[in-house]
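Follow-up to my earlier ticket, as requested here are the two runs.
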Amino acid sequence: MNYYVIAAGIVAGVAMGAASVYWIHRGVGTGWIVLGAAGVGIGCTMVLTAVALVFTGLDHFMVVHVVYLVLVVGIPLAGAIVLAFGRPCPLIITALCFVSFAAIPAGVYATHIEPFWLRTDAVQLAVDGIGEGIRIGVIADLQTTSIGSYENEAIDRLISLEPDIVVFPGDLHQIETGQFDERAPEFTRLVQRLVDTVPVVYLVNGHSDTVSDLWRITDGTGARVLDNEIDTFEINGAAIHLAGVSLNGRDYEPAARQVVERLAGSELAGVRILLAHEPDAVELLNGTTVDLLVSGHTHGGQVSIPFFGPPITASSVPRHVAAGGLHELHGTPVYVSTGVGRERGNAPQVRFGVRPSIGIIDLVVDE
């Protein structure tokens, strides 16, 4: 389908450009030409999207992908056609054609540069119950079909930061149907390389992986998959109670709420951490609190508009929280990773204004 959406962008661009050239040569007014070209572009996008949805079924990622390709391929192509064949061209239309070319570098940046411009997101959180600092490494949403140099770089960078604990809040992979047996060993080697340096590694599932997938990937590595359960261990002399909740389709299982209730219970002394794929898991607390919720899922919106933030987050938490980083919701500190990877499948694999990241959360003594 990726070839289809590229073709769709080209078809829309040719249609807009050809229509504009025709109207210019017919002496139609400038305003009508601009409105007409916009109408042709919108019409083409709607038709091409409808055709795509016949093959994919209802898929909002496909809709976004077609629109994106029309914007970064179709409109600049239309501008080039008008400049080449629309002479004499009204000044305002000439200016708009040159403006349309700005979409080309923006598309190149969003597709080929920012998605691989990995950063480290380091935050501090003061907590009770520890005598010295504890460093938590977060690596969320690799969401890749295979392990390559980029994913290995993310692991190398995380290892170099010497975390005491590493957590994967879901979407470790997005392996295509029928290729799991072939690809899974790559992910096993990745996890093993991390465990060899940081022995305390925990995972929960997301939307693109399952608990059984993760069990197979982590088998024999020493990493632990938490399936609606709490694990208690000691780091730097402090008791850590780490609860991991599982997604079943789009929702958390009823067992997840019971686990969270136990975690938030006052009988547990020490640091209480909830690991969940979505930041929406804060709702499981139902008015109670824990010391930290670690999540991913949103990719920071993957696209962020200056002074507005991400228009789409696939989350019910406030936009500024879903955009990533450490925030407080209903009395609970919530860390949302912007993720290492990006949405696959029929989605446009882009990032704009939301760089991928590995997370470092330093728990410090609350003085």
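Run two:
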Amino acid sequence: MKNAKLAWLVVNHFVHAEKFETFYSMLIRTARELDINMKVKTNVELLVEPEAPLRGPRPDFVLFWDKDLSLCSHLERQGLHVFNSSHAIEVCDSKNLTALELAGHGIPQPRTILAPKTFRPDQYPSLDFLPEVGRRLGFPLVVKESFGSFGFQVHLAGDQESLEKIVREIGTRPMQFQEFVRSEWNGQPADLRLHVVGGKVVASVLRTAKEGDFRANVTNGGKMLPWKATPEQKKLAVRACKILRTDFAGVDLLFGPNGPVLCEVNTNAHFKNLYDAIGIDVGRFIMSHLLKKCGLTN
């Protein structure tokens, strides 16, 4: 790798789960195959000192697989090519900001209400706004924390009592309420994950939920199966990524009554399970796209 391109893979210093380490190794291996010397850097190694220049060799590009927005913005201000951008990560990391950013663009989404802000640090002093939420959206309805991954912060409220219980448990963390879209495939709760890189869908899978769960997420015990995305599904996923200004993302779609419905967009979507299921290495598409975008290809 004498003439290899230098890249940084920026990750969070405080995350040490095996699934993350395995995923990082997969990215590094793919980079090596494309003659990219990829070095792992944590957000502790790259402590942000706003007025200080970067030390050492500058990478040709940065694959930012973290959500430390201050660091991401700092690297951009240092003139580095950073992907995804701090703007894309910020908007997609917050489900509330995603809904606001996509509003008015004709993107089919579940009807959504954003929880009002309170300055109490722990609990809402009053839940008197929840009856109106239930009236507008009907039951069951979905409660999502604005920040969360792998479906862990997504809840289903069957009635007003359970809605109030869920909100009390979440406290004052940002959240949203959505109409429940009964997304099913062959009578089983399911959704789609489409990976979009450089404005093209490069892989798609069907995800089914484990028995008794409405969330079609593999980490929660669901299954992943090959899926050939329709032109309508591809168009929706690509358009959402264009609006949100992502270079690459995992786009989750629901089976709506009148066609696909956007669920969410993930700038840091893992694809190890997808590779195991259908044999497509999304990382190779990402690396190739970044090399081309940075003018590093021959």
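The only thing I checked on run two: The chain has nine helices and 14 strands. Let me know what else you need.
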